[in-house]
Structure formats: structure tokens, C-alpha cells
Amino acid sequence: MKASARRASKPPGGVRLEDVARVAGVSPISVSRALGNPGRVSEAMRRKVAEAVAKTGFVLNSHASTLKSGRSTLIPVFVSSIQNAHFANALQGASDAFEGSRYHLVMAQTNYSDRLEQEMVDSVLPFKPAAVMFTGMVQSKGTRETLKRLAVPVMEMWDYSPTPIDMLVGFSNAEGGRLMGEHFGQRGFRKIAYAGRTRDRGAQRLAGFQEGLALYGSAPALVLPMEGPRTVADGGAALERILQQLPDCEAIFFATDSLALGAILRAAELEIEVPKTLAIAGYGDLDIARHIAPSLTTIHVGAYDMGLRAGKMLRARLESKELASTILRCPIQLEVRTSTTP
Amino acid sequence: MKASARRASKPPGGVRLEDVARVAGVSPISVSRALGNPGRVSEAMRRKVAEAVAKTGFVLNSHASTLKSGRSTLIPVFVSSIQNAHFANALQGASDAFEGSRYHLVMAQTNYSDRLEQEMVDSVLPFKPAAVMFTGMVQSKGTRETLKRLAVPVMEMWDYSPTPIDMLVGFSNAEGGRLMGEHFGQRGFRKIAYAGRTRDRGAQRLAGFQEGLALYGSAPALVLPMEGPRTVADGGAALERILQQLPDCEAIFFATDSLALGAILRAAELEIEVPKTLAIAGYGDLDIARHIAPSLTTIHVGAYDMGLRAGKMLRARLESKELASTILRCPIQLEVRTSTTP
DNA sequence: GTGAAAGCGCTAACAA
DNA sequence: TTGTTAGCGCTTTCAC
Questions:
Q1: Which end of chain A, N or C, is surrounded by fewer C-beta atoms within 10 Å?
Q2: Which of B85, B91, B262 sits opposite A291 (nearest CB)?
Q3: 3-class DSSP state for residue A299?
Q4: Are B65 and A107 an interchain contact pair (Cβ–Cβ within 8 Å)?
């Protein structure tokens, strides 16, 4: 008896489909169908199988399933850092979009490193992912090539680029910068400083900012590049450096809210009046931005919403629904608050 | 020719181990060993295989690998909400602990719901996970049973409990509450209020708080339960409700920093002097807590560090290293700042 | 140190 | 609607 011979030597694997089938008195494939495609079996079959599954405590082996069917349920999501509230929000949105689906998101952190990104991508390829998501554009050429060859849906998020690998849902950093530039121009600020990253999306924000200012015949008098960490404490330090280098500075645009918040708090300690003496603006609209005093003028980016849209778009594609477009530009808004207006 | 027959019909699967073996002129099993157990093959073999892999662009199929070997590389991590900065930090720590290992963390959000937790746990069982991690104790009895039967390492984090399912790395919420109770007692506050969750870890914080106050013959005059969202805005609202119900309140302990920050900001608007008229304390030590004015007295919990320790402990177990203990209590600290001391 | 045979648990394709 | 057959791609014996 082959079945019982197997049964006897069965500590390793646990309950198999075959065991359920035997208990239910049906064939293994019927169990498989009742579980994975309930619409294609009779009501009676469904019940018999459900009972047998409950009785045996059967748990499907997804590795076997994926191996045979060729359809994986894993979707790696690459995030620079999950400690960044915006990325966390985006991730939450993506995660919510896939709730109740057959897919699972696998987290992969790239820590802002191209090398790590490449490594992480390589390390998830053995899973034969159903799709891949990125919070941020894929920078490295090698990784882009790898992903194109993969021939699975690739979703890039956060930024807006004319040449995504495949699908894209993002904001235009240039637009955010431009909105702030126009706002500064309208307010009539002279002696303007920019502090934050000057590469990648920082570069786009800065370029947009300059563009916006240019409409008013203005330009930043000082650019303080900050490529390292950009915490609240760094914002305070940045403020001091800017005031050293540009003592009569009238307005500063920080490329992230954390920096701007740090600057506002330090300004209070230095008894510099914001916005009267110095106007301060941020980017991102953190929860705290509207609550601090003075409340922070900033660019609102709906990260959660973006993640949700991206997740839904990708899910639709995976469930082979019609897709109107594979590129989506999320709205972005200037939030004018008291840190730039009296 | 079976091989070429297969080759001809080979669009689906891509390059297989067998293809690499043919190119390298060795057997499939040798390729497998060269890749997964390089120590057990000769230098020459390793080089031949490496060349053939590069030439063919081979990517291992982890589903086949796991199916055959029975050793999965997936570790689901259950988090209530990734938007909570502490949990995000813990997750980052856990993620860092597994960097460079063969394991992959799969994110699963439970949104503070027992039902969802159970569902999510069930949904990852088909992966035959190598281990399971939880940020928080597993509450539901059903899930606890499921996990015990699973017979894989289970790591619970964040809280401290005498009866974990398996492994545990956490803080004592009761201790945090007690430290704050003692601090309030020492400062001689009367008319004391507590605001925040009063269930689960909130209950522990509150109990500890009461215990600490009791040492000074004191007790909370008001407990404001907040089981719903607890954002900065909610903290401001909570402050107002407390002042309505307890107008001569001298000190408030908020169970999270967000609430306390909201209260501090609202107090400034209401022109209530902190700490002179009203002392405010929080729990968690968010980045901003030390930067706000007045800086916030709070309980410091090293979430990143905890996640890192938990990840390392679990990794050691999976790599079958000796483990001194499977339970670890992380240090917790009272950070006395100006919001409770003049 | 290397290889041959077998089968992990499941589902696609075909058949009834 | 249900069942039979075959094999997904790999690694575990076991042999040499």
C-alpha cells in the first residue's frame, strides 16, 4: 500500500492535499480546485472538502503550488527607509490596496544605497515575484536592466519621471519646488536660502524652486547641500550655518519638514521671529507641521494616498483588469501657513 | 532527445539548474552544491559553475528549493501599524538584524485587530515560514494555539510578559508607568490625570503609574480613556476635556508622546504655562520630544534597538547557535525634561 | 569530491 | 463536474 507506506514515514511534511482527498473521499485535484477555484466545483464538493480540511488541519504548501502553477504571490516592495514617515505611509497605502488579495508584500530596505538596492533585487529574484514595487525611482542602470528582463509588472512610486521602467504613480518634485518658489516670489522675499539634498529628488525640488523664483526675477542667494541625515536636530544646525553665511537671510526653503521644524524650534531659542524676521518653509506636510507654532508652510504630498493608488493600479494589472493608464500623477499642494505669512 | 525537446518547449520556466549544468559540463547536483554549499565542492567546480551561471543568467527558483529541502527563508513580521514610528523603528531594527542572511521578512499589518491578525497569520502559513515575529504580544487565544502548533520559532516583541509563546524581547510597560508615577510623586503633584488607552499595554502603563503614585500616597484624580486614534490633534482635544472635568489639574500623563505634544501645543494657544501651571508628560520619546519648547518629559523606549536585539536573537536561533536565553527585557528610561520641571 | 535516482506537494492539461 | 497523468525545479538520499 503506497499511501499507508507514505503515511508511516510522514513526520516531515505534515498533512498533504492527498490526505485531505482521502478523508473527503475525492481526488486530490478536486481538493485543489475546491480551495483555489471554488467556483468550479459543486456545492457538495466544497462542503466535503471544507470538512476534511478542518478535520485534518491541512495547510496548503504555497511553494509547491507556485512551483507547479508558475504564479507567485509575492511582491517585494523596496523602500529607502521605513523610518521615513512618508515612505511608511506609502507602504501602508500599498499594503491596504492588497488587503484581501492573494498577494503578499515583502519588505526590502535599500537604505538609500544603489549597491544595496541591486543586492536586494537580486536576492528576491529567486522568489519569481509576481510584481515589484519601488518607493522612489530605480536609479542604477544595472537594476533597471535586470527589472526589464524580469518581465513582471514594475511599479515605481513617489517621483514623477517621463521614463519609468513600467508603471508609475508619483508626485512631481519639480512642481512642489516650483509652487514654493512662486510663493516666495509672491511674498517678495529677497535673500533666500535652500537647504536639503541637492541630488536626485532634492535636485528636482531645487530646480523647481529656482524656476518658480525666476518668474519673479529672483533666485536663491544660498544653497546649503545636506546629503547626510536630515533630522530635526540637523535643521537647527542648518539654520545657524545659514545665518552665519547669509546673516540678512529673509526666507529659507527646507527640502524636508523635519529640517524646517528643527529650524523653527531653534529660531525660537535664538529669539528670531518667524515669519517676521525670517520666513521658513518645509516639504512633506508632516502631521506636526500644522500644529507647531508658528504653523509650517509646506508642500503637502499624500503619501498614503499615493501608495494606495499605486497598489490598486498594480493589483488591477495583476488581476488582468483593463487599465486606463500605467502612469499616474498625484496632485500636490502648497499649504500656506503662518511660518511664511504674518 | 529529451533535453532538447524540453529546451524547445521552454519559454515558461526560464533557465534551470540543468541548463547551467550542461553548459558547465557537470551534473545538476554539483551546480546546486556549488551555489548552496560552496564549501563542499572543489575550487575548480566552483569556478566552472560560476561561469556557467553568469553565461546563462541563471536564477535559482526558491520555491522548488524550499519544496524539496523543507527549509523556508520567509519570516512574516506582524505589525499593528507601520505608521507608528516606534513600530517602524522596531521593524527597521529587525530588518537590519537579518541583513546578509538567507532570510526575508514579509510584512503583515494587523491594524490593531485580532480578527485581522488571525486572518493574516492563516494567510502566511502556506509559506511554511521559518519563524514568525510580532510587534506586540499575540492577544487572541486562537492565534496563540495556531502558533504553538506551528512548531517554528515565534518572537514576540515590545511588551513584557511572563508567558510568551516562545521567544520574547520587550519593555515593561508597567515599569514605564511606574517610573512616571514615581516622578510625579516626587515632584509633589496633586490633581493628576492620565489620558490614553486603558486596555492592553495602556492598562499596564496605567497600572504601573498608579503603583508609582501610590508610593507617594497619591493616585490619579481622572482617567480619560482614549481607545481610538491618538494623534497630535487628539492630544489638544484631550487637554481641553481634562481641564473641563478637572479644572485645577496640576499634571497630566499621556500614554503616548503624540498626545502629549498636542497638549503642549494647545496649552501654548490657551496661554497655560507648562510646567508652571500644568505639567505634561508623554511616553515613547519621539524625535521631536526633546526639541519642542518646553521639551517633553517622557519614557524612552529604544524601539530600534529592541527590534535589532529581537532579530539577532531569532537569527541566532535559526542558525542554530547557542542561546543564553529566549527572553530579554530591554532597558527603559525616564527622560526628565522641562515639561514637568521648572 | 562527484553523480544517479527519486520525489518534495501541488496543479496544468487532457480525458471522461 | 470530476478524475488521471505527468512534471514544475530543485535537493535529498545513497552510491561511487
A1: N
A2: B262
A3: strand
A4: no
Whether the per-residue pLDDT at B303 is higher than 90: the answer is yes
Distance, in Å, from the CA atom of B272 to the CA atom of B118, rounded to the nearest integer, reads 46
Q: Nearest CA of chain B to the CA of A110: how many Å?
A: 11
Predicted structure pTM score: 0.88
Are A109 and B128 within 8 A, CB to CB? no
Q: How many Å apart are CA B130 and CA B62, to the nearest integer?
A: 14
Contact B72 A66 (CB under 8 A): no
Half-sphere exposure of B193 (CA within 13 A, CB side): 27
CB-proximal positions of chain D, under 7 Å: 1-5, 7-13
CA of B32 to C1' of C4 (A): 15
Judge contact between B284 and B299, C-beta under 8 A: yes
Cis, bond preceding B220 (omega within 30 deg of 0): no
How many angstroms separate the CA of A60 from the C1' of C6?
A: 23
Containing B197, the helix (H) or strand (E) segment is none
- CA–CA distance, B253 with B257 (Å, rounded to integer): 10
Residues 30-49 of A with CB under 7 A from strand C: 32, 35-36
Rounded Cα distance between B143 and B139, Å, is 8
A68 touches strand C (CB under 7 A): yes
- Of A95-99, B16-20, B227-231, where does mean pLDDT reach its minimum? B227-231
- Site from A58, A71, A99, A288 to mutate, B interface, most B CB atoms within 10 angstroms: A288
Give the closest residue to A285 by CA, choosing from A337, A342, A217. Answer: A337
Show the DSSP H helices in A163-281 as ranges.
173-187, 200-214, 232-245, 257-269
Q: What is the pLDDT of residue B5?
A: 35
Nearest Cα to Cα of residue A301 among A194, A159, A200, A162: A159
Q: With an 8 Å Cβ cutoff, are A233 and B291 in contact? A: yes
Cell numbers found for residue A219: 533666485
Sign of the torsion formed by the C-alpha atoms of A242, A243, A246 and A251: positive
- Residue B13's pLDDT band, with cuts at 50, 70 and 90, is low
The pairing of strands B298-301 and B332-335 is: antiparallel
**Grid cell at residue A121:** 533585487
Question: How far apart are alpha carbons A93 and A78 in whole angstroms?
Answer: 14
Cβ atoms of residues A235 and A258 within 8 Å: yes
Instruction: Identify any residues that bridge with B230 across adjacent strands, giving them in sequence order.
Output: none
Positions of E strands within A80-204: 104-109, 132-135, 154-158, 167-170, 192-196
Q: Are strands A192-196 and A220-225 parallel, antiparallel or unpaired?
A: parallel
Structure confidence at residue A151 (pLDDT): 85
Cis peptide before B129 (omega within 30 of 0): no
Mean pLDDT of B82-88: 90
What does the pLDDT read at residue B107? 87
Per CB-CB distance under 8 Å, the chain B contacts of A304 are 83
- Taking the C-alpha atoms of residue B295 and residue B298, their distance in angstroms, rounded to an integer, is 9
Residues 221-250 of B with CB under 7 A from strand C: none
pLDDT at B51: 94
A-B Cβ pairs (cutoff 8 Å, strict): 129
Residue A171, pLDDT above cutoff 90: yes
